Amino acid sequence: MPYCPRSLGWSFGQEEVRNSTLADRPNDHLFRARRRPGGGACPTPRAITKFPPRSRTLSALAVQERQTVLALLREPRFVDLAPAEVYATLLDEGVYHCSIRTMYRLLAEHDEVRERRDQLRHPAYRKPELLAKAPNEVWSWDITKLMGPMKWYYLYVILDIFSRRVVGWCVADAESATLFKALFEETLAKHTVPPGQLTLHADRGGPMKAKATALLLADLGVTKSHSRPHTSNDNPFSEAHFKTMKYQPQFPKRFGSIEDARAFCRDFFTWYNRDHHHAGIGLMTPDQVHYGQADAVHAARQQTLDRAFRRTPERFVRKAPQPPAKPIEVWINPPQKPESIQA
Predict the structure, then answer these.
(1) Do residues 129 and 329 make contact, with C-beta atoms less than 8 angstroms apart?
(2) What pLDDT, in 10s, does the model give residues 162-181?
C-alpha cells in the first residue's frame, strides 16, 4: 500500500488520531513522521494516549506564595511600577520571591497587565455631506505645490463648488494659515457673502486645521468642514481643478521665479473662469453659472438645437436634441438612497 495522502484518509486507526492530542495538527505531519525511509506501505499508527494535565513542578510557587506576590505587587508603592522595578527594589531590600517573568505571569492571570502609556485612539470621522444649490453656498479650498528653480512655491485656490469658479487664489513661498487669512478675507469681501451663508470645505492639512483658521471662520460666520483623513474623494472639486491646471500643455515643469508662477496662474484662471466649458456644469463656463446666466445660455442652446431639428429631423433618430442639463445642485458625498424592497 503506497503512502496515503491526507485527502484519502486511512481506513484504520482514524479514531486514535482523531481523539489524540495531535488532532488539531495537519495529518500530513503525522504521516511524514511515520513514513519509512525507503518508501513503502503506510504503517498502522499506534494508539496515542492522552496525557493528563501536567502536574505542578517543584519550582512553581505554592498558592500561598502566589497570593503573597500578588499582594506585594498591589501595594501602593509598587502598583504603578513595572515588575522589573519591583524585582530590583526587592533585591536591594534583601527580599526575593520569584522571577520577573513569574510576576508578569501572575498579573496576566488576573488581567492586571496592560500598556501603561495612554494610546492615541483616532475618533470615528464622519463623512462630510455638503449640498450647494447656488453660488457662494459652499466653497472648497486647497494648496498645491508648484516647482520653482530652487524650491517649491505654494498655490492657494478657493473654488465655488456649484459654479466651479475660482473665487480667490494666490501664490506664496510658504504654506501658512496667516497667508490664507489675508486671502480669504479679501475674497469674502469681494463677493459680499453675508454671515451664516457660506460653508468652507478643506482637507486636514496644517493651515486648514490651524487654530488661526478656525478663529477666522468663526469671526466671519463661516461654517467649516473637513475631509476625512487620507480620503481625497472628500475634496473632489479642488483635486480635479488642480489636475485640470497641471495637465494643460502650457503648464511648465519648473517655474523660473515666483513672478512667472503668478503670471501663469493669472492667465490660466482667467481662461478657466471665462472660456473653459466645464463638463460638470452642463458645458457652461464657471462665470456663466456663477453670475446667473445659466438659464439664458441653456435656453439659447435649446433654440439652436430646435432649429437644427426642424431643418433635418432625420438626423435625430431617437428624440429631439437637448443641450446638456444645467446645474441644479452639487453634492460632496451625496447621501446614499435606501434600497427599495421588492416583493
Answers:
(1) no
(2) 999 999 999 999 999 999 99
**C-alpha neighbours within 13 Å on the C-beta side of residue 89:** 10
For the record, the C-alpha cell of 138 comes out as 459652499
Dihedral sign from CA coordinates of 291, 292, 295, 300: negative
Domain ranges of the chain: 1-51, 63-109, 130-281
Q: What is the mean pLDDT of residues 12-37?
A: 52
Radius of gyration of the chain (CA): 37
AA identity, residue 309: F
64: its cell numbers:
500561598
Q: If residue 142 lies in a helix (H) or strand (E), which one and from where to where?
A: strand 138-147
Per the structure block, which three cell numbers stand in for 22?
A: 495531535
According to DSSP, the β-strands at 199-202 and 138-147 are parallel
Contacts of 134 (CB under 8 A, 6+ apart): 162
The pLDDT value recorded for residue 1 is: 45
d(CA 309, CA 203): 47
Match domain 130-281 to its CATH number in 3.40.50.2000, 3.30.420.10, 2.60.15.10, 3.40.50.2300: 3.30.420.10
Q: How many CB atoms are closer than 10 A to CB 98?
A: 20
